[in-house]
Write a structure and sequence with these properties.
Layout: E1 7-15, H1 22-40, E2 45-52, H2 56-65, H3 69-87, E3 94-97, H4 101-116, E4 120-130, E5 135-136, E6 143-144, E7 153-154, E8 163-172, H5 178-187, E9 192-193, H6 195-206, E10 212-213, E11 215-216, E12 224-225, E13 228-233, H7 235-239, H8 242-245, H9 256-264, E14 269-273, H10 277-290, E15 299-302, E16 305-307, E17 310-311, H11 322-329, H12 331-341, E18 348-349, H13 352-382, H14 394-415, H15 419-440, H16 442-445, H17 452-473, H18 478-487, H19 490-494
Parallel strand pairs: 1-2, 1-14, 2-3, 9-15, 14-15, 16-18
Antiparallel strand pairs: 4-5, 4-8, 6-7, 8-10, 11-13, 12-13, 16-17
The chain binds 5'-O-[(L-methionyl)-sulphamoyl]adenosine.
5'-O-[(L-methionyl)-sulphamoyl]adenosine binds next to strand 1, helix 1 and strand 14.
């Protein structure tokens, strides 16, 4: 039986201590492509993203700017975090802010349930805390520092010493969940991906879990505990719950929110960067088990965008704003480049040169050129009316068979978040069709009326191929593929591009003869110079 549950995918919620950089946009883009692909398969989808507004890191950023934390987050969210979604062309279904009442109330309710279930107790925490990570560090987490921190232990991500804390907090009895988590992961070996992340998580749990503070007594900017309002919820134990609160956890039965929760839970994918794997693959499922909820089906940890071999970050002043790249190349090329050039799950470096080279070779010369040649020829040789194709030869049958294989590779790849494999499968089909055009030489066929029938076949074959390419790349590059759909005149015949189904894409001959083809703007205009 088909799964009646909606495909539910989340991104991490991003700290609003600063504006977004391309590392944040990378995760959201991946989530957007994955969910658009699922929609295009005809699945019900819920795609959630949002922002993490509490904690010391955000509070200190607001203090440094001399504004109240609420004013600080309001300003950054409206001026930077919401607009970036439009910049990268994300089609999220919801956007959660952790300062919203729906979140605050449900977080409080959640921890009451966990406390009632016996998993919360009061104790003293003494130990290191990294504000950059907002994390209580364990022995073994810190590494030898260098430079000004030579001889000290530092956070491996932020390169600086952690702060020493001593405070009386409420603790979450994480240690009670070691065996259940191990059993869960044994039973669901795909619940953490890629495999290296799974292995890391399982070996971390095997070392034995220690209880962890779920509240902070020395922090003011957060969600107060309902039973001890002098303390706020530890920011991670507030933030992780966004995945549940945003879809209606704890809503009154019978309400729309309660229905939403029933239709999406558990998340199919919690998409995260590898820096926050432990929170998502250890603490988060344990919290859910403690509250009697099902853990996520899959936590996928992707790699980092690196600058000079290190994780790109605003705090190290290496962050590049998405607008910088999108201003030059456009959102489609941005989406294409990062998912094509870096195997999802591995680290990768961004360079303007590489971006420009791939843009030129694969988008401007590859797909863009194929589309402009095809539409220009239909306009020029057939007055913009798509011809009927009779008597296909082996050359056309090879294209038809190649399209079937393309879908067979691309569909599981995109479903599996293996974007580069999916993208390359379509790219190879584009290369094949470009080669077909070169070999068939329609410009030569056009010179002799005797070859009119053959020219019809070639033009129809290329346009039909482009119809399929537009659909397959629509989740990745919605703006350009929408434009291509218009140029092919496909909308009037087949309906909106987003309604085309992946399962039907390889069915040949969907664009009927007589379809009005127009030559529009270049899909990927040439870009001569980059910074
Ligand atoms: N607020 C927490 C997450 C809470 S989720 C319940 C947080 N926020 S963050 O702003 O630091 O962003 C974390 C996410 O942004 C990473 O997990 C990753 O998805 C993305 N990235 C931030 N920098 C990145 C790179 N340099 N490269 C790739 N992704 C990066 O942690």
């Amino acid at each position: 039986m088909a799964d009646p549950k909606a495909f539910y995918l989340t991104t991490p919620i991003y700290y609003v201590n600063d504006a977004p950089h391309i590392g944040h946009a990378y995760t959201t883009t991946a989530g957007d492509v994955a969910t658009r692909w699922r929609r295009q398969r005809g699945e019900d989808v819920w795609f959630l993203t949002g922002v993490d507004e509490h904690g010391t890191k955000v509070q200190r950023a607001a203090d440094a700017a001399g504004v109240a934390p609420q004013d600080w987050v309001d300003r950054l969210v409206s001026q930077a975090w919401r607009p970036v979604l439009e910049t990268i062309d994300a089609a999220n279904d919801d956007f959660i802010r952790t300062t919203e009442p729906r979140h605050r109330e449900r977080v409080q309710r959640f921890w009451e349930v966990v406390r009632d279930n016996g998993y919360v107790y009061s104790a003293e925490y003494v130990g290191p805390y990294c504000v950059g990570c907002e994390e209580f560090k364990l022995s073994g987490d810190l590494v030898e520092g260098s430079g000004e921190f030579e001889g000290q232990l530092v956070c491996p991500v932020h390169g600086r010493p952690a702060e020493e804390l001593q405070e009386t907090n409420w603790f979450f009895r994480l240690s009670a969940f070691s065996d259940r988590l191990l059993a869960h992961y044994e039973e669901h070996p795909d619940a953490v991906q890629p495999r290296s992340a799974y292995n890391e998580v399982v070996s971390f749990i095997r070392q034995g879990l220690v209880d962890i503070s779920m509240s902070r007594s020395s922090v003011a900017w957060g969600i107060p505990l309902s039973w001890d309002p002098a303390q706020v919820t530890y920011v991670w134990f507030d933030a992780l719950l966004n995945y549940a609160t945003a879809v209606g956890y704890g809503a009154e039965p019978g309400t729309r929110d309660a229905e939403l929760f029933a239709s999406v839970w558990p998340p199919d994918v919690n998409l995260v960067g590898k820096d926050i794997l432990r929170f998502h693959a250890v603490y988060w499922p344990a919290m859910l088990m403690a509250a009697g909820l099902e853990p996520p089906r899959r936590v996928f940890a992707h790699g980092w965008l690196l600058v000079g071999g290190e994780k790109m970050s605003k705090s190290k002043l290496t962050g590049i704003a998405p607008e910088q790249i999108i201003g030059t190349f456009g959102s489609d090329a941005f989406r294409y480049y990062f998912l094509r050039a870096i195997a999802f799950g591995q680290d990768g470096s961004f360079s303007w040169e590489d971006m420009h080279a791939r843009y030129t070779a694969e988008l401007a010369n590859g797909l863009g050129n194929l589309a402009s040649r095809a539409t220009a020829m239909v306009v020029r040789y057939r007055d913009g009316s798509l011809p009927a194709a009779h008597d296909l030869t082996d050359a056309e049958h090879r294209i038809i068979a190649a399209l079937e294989r393309t879908v067979e590779v691309a569909d599981p790849a995109f479903c599996d978040l293996d974007f580069s494999t999916g993208i390359v499968a379509v790219k190879e089909f584009i290369d094949l069709v470009n080669l077909y055009v070169t070999e068939q030489e329609p410009w030569v066929l056009a010179k002799d009326d005797q070859h009119a029938g053959r020219l019809d076949v070639v033009l129809a074959t290329v346009c039909e191929s482009l119809r399929a390419i537009a659909v397959l790349y629509n989740p990745l590059m919605p703006k350009a593929m929408g434009e291509l759909w218009d140029q092919l005149g496909a909308g009037g015949q087949l309906g909106p591009i987003a309604d085309q189904r992946i399962a039907d894409v390889a069915r040949w001959g969907q664009l009927p003869p007589g379809t009005r083809v127009t030559k529009g703007e270049a899909l990927f205009p040439r870009i001569e110079e980059v910074e």
